[in-house]
Amino acid sequence: MSAPNKSYDPVEVEALKPEEIERMREEALAAFAAAADLEALREAKAAHMGDRSPLALANREIGALPPQAKAEAGKRVGMARGAVNKAFAARQAELEAERDARVLVEEAVDVTLPHDRVAAGARHPLVTFCERVEDIFVAMGYEVAEGPEVEAEWFNFDALNFDPDHPARAMQDTFFVSGKDAKGESGVVLRTHTSPVQVRSMLDREPPVYVVCPGRVYRTDELDATHTPVFHQVELLAIDEGLTMADLKGTIEHMVTSLFGEGLRTRLRPAYFPFTEPSAELDMECYVCRGASVGNPGRPCRTCSSEGWIELGGCGMVNPRVLVAAGIDPEKYSGFAFGFGIERMLMFRHNVEDMRDMVEGDVRFTRPFGMEI
Ligand code: PHE
């Protein structure tokens, strides 16, 4: 009969030998250390921590061992697996930190770069041109003055010495907002010119008065290549002691030089405006042909239609009756005024052939004027 086996010698399982376990642990740690990126680490994990890894296979052998050996081997394998898990987690954290740092650099966004390619907007050439004209006069000491576009008929006509039956008041020229009320108070119109700002400026200030008044004006014209019911004027008014027509001409010559260059002559042609006396139309020499196209069919000029002169606008010495209406003593003060259309000036200065281009908002029109803002 056989005696109980007291000196049980555990079966030597090759895979569970301490040096084997140690080797598996070392190999796993070396593989993790060698993994250069998270992808390589994932592969090393499958090889050394996966179901078919040496340590997992060794772990499976434990079950077959007798209790004492089972406990020892279990502890050994458990410790090795714990160390491997820890080493994996540490390396993973390391590689993730490296990746995050790299991504921060590689995917960095330079917020100072232009964020899109949508063209920047710019102001309309009519506006920038108006401001250029204003600047010329501001540099001479003029003040910019503005008035309402919906204006009292009194400012637009009466104070400017227009007779009650003056044709300019008639329906075909003026947009009436409301007629005279029952008490005969002034009617309301869309201003037909910037000249009412002359009267407002004189009432607002003590002489001397030097103002430049840009603004939108309205007339009952159809929109076509050379007319628009809404357009812009710049008005100039100077009131001082001893002003003469020579001051007017010199001032306009300075503006012409500033806008079109040196050496262009200007001329005055007699005209009539109720609010100036004497009145004139002011022409400038054509800045393109300088008169060379006149009587010279071989060299026509589109800018001045071969006339040699370009009409700028109306002007004159402020009518004493207007001074009186604005509370200024005509015995002491005299003044000159000048008004011209911005659209017209933009047309001949930039060869714009169709006025409608200025109001249609097509960027192909505005782009060649540049991106002045
Ligand atoms: N207001 C006039 C017009 O619109 C122009 C003008 C202004 C004439 C000032 C003389 C003096 O036609």
From TrEMBL:
SUPFAM superfamilies: Class II aaRS and biotin synthetases (SSF55681), tRNA-binding arm (SSF46589)
Keyword Phosphoprotein: no
Catalytic reaction annotation: tRNA(Phe) + L-phenylalanine + ATP = L-phenylalanyl-tRNA(Phe) + AMP + diphosphate + H(+)
GO molecular function: ATP binding; magnesium ion binding; phenylalanine-tRNA ligase activity; tRNA binding
One record GO biological process: phenylalanyl-tRNA aminoacylation
Cofactor(s), by name: Mg(2+)
Protein origin, superkingdom: Bacteria
Protein family according to the UniProt entry: Belongs to the class-II aminoacyl-tRNA synthetase family. Phe-tRNA synthetase alpha subunit type 1 subfamily.
Protein name per Swiss-Prot or TrEMBL: Phenylalanine--tRNA ligase alpha subunit
Organism this protein belongs to: Streptomyces mashuensis
Gene from which the chain derives: pheS
